[in-house]
Specification:
Helix content is 39%, strand content 21%. It is of the alpha+beta class. The protein has one domain. Strands 2-3-4 form a 3-stranded antiparallel β-sheet. Helix 1 crosses helix 2 and helix 2 crosses helix 3. The longest helix has 17 residues. It is globular and about 35 Å long.
């Protein structure tokens, strides 16, 4: 995956769940339900950490990962970008207005 494509998350852009997405917190993971498509997605502890910080954008998600896990900022940025790209592509996440 090219993390520098035009669709890559902008560090200053905050994200929010797409309209209609139902989020269920199961402790260490989150379950995201898209009722319109009848699809369910699960985020592990890392994904949950990123999801919880997305109102602050990519930079906040990177800081949250570095604080929560023993990883470098570079690895956290790569992981957060990949997850945000996947969530946006799946229609679960949209940039905040």
């Amino acid at each position: 995956m090219d993390s520098h494509s035009d669709s890559s998350p902008n560090p200053g852009v905050a994200y929010t769940p797409a309209p209609g997405i139902v989020v269920t917190d199961l402790g260490d993971e989150l379950v995201l339900l898209d009722p319109a498509r009848g699809e369910m997605f699960a985020l592990n502890a890392t994904g949950r950490c990123v999801w919880g910080a997305l109102d602050g954008g990519l930079d906040a998600a990177v800081r949250a990962l570095v604080d929560a896990f023993d990883i470098t900022a570079e690895q956290a940025a790569a992981d957060a970008r990949a997850l945000i790209d996947d969530l946006v592509s799946a229609g679960l996440l949209v940039p905040s207005a």
